[in-house]
Write a structure and sequence with these properties.
The protein is of the alpha/beta class and 85 residues long. The protein is built from two helices and four strands. It has a single domain, classed as Histidine-containing Protein, Chain: A (2-Layer Sandwich). 29% of the residues lie in helices and 24% in strands.
Length: 85
């Protein structure tokens, strides 16, 4: 006897919901100034644009976006200004 599992899990999150979750995640981080970060969602890809003040901030924003439900790839286009904004 064999058991076949044809269950597919399809995420039901909308682009707006994913953007909101990423923004809320960034706002909760005291060590980040995400005021100048923009998040765009197309399918399962998050595109980050704007400015951050350090490499560690850039990576933290990327991690927050990658951890959002429904995101499979992050296109990180954030620029590092080198000074707090």
């Amino acid at each position: 006897m064999a058991v076949l599992n044809h269950v597919q899990v399809i995420p039901t999150t909308s682009a707006g919901d994913v953007c909101r979750r990423i923004s809320e995640s960034l706002d909760r981080r005291a060590d980040l100034n995400a005021r100048y970060v923009n998040v765009g969602i197309e399918g399962s890809i998050a595109t980050l644009t704007g400015h951050v003040s350090s490499w560690s901030e850039r990576m933290a924003v990327e991690r927050a976006a990658a951890d959002a439900p429904g995101i499979s790839h992050v296109d990180n286009r954030l620029e590092i200004t080198g000074t707090p904004l």
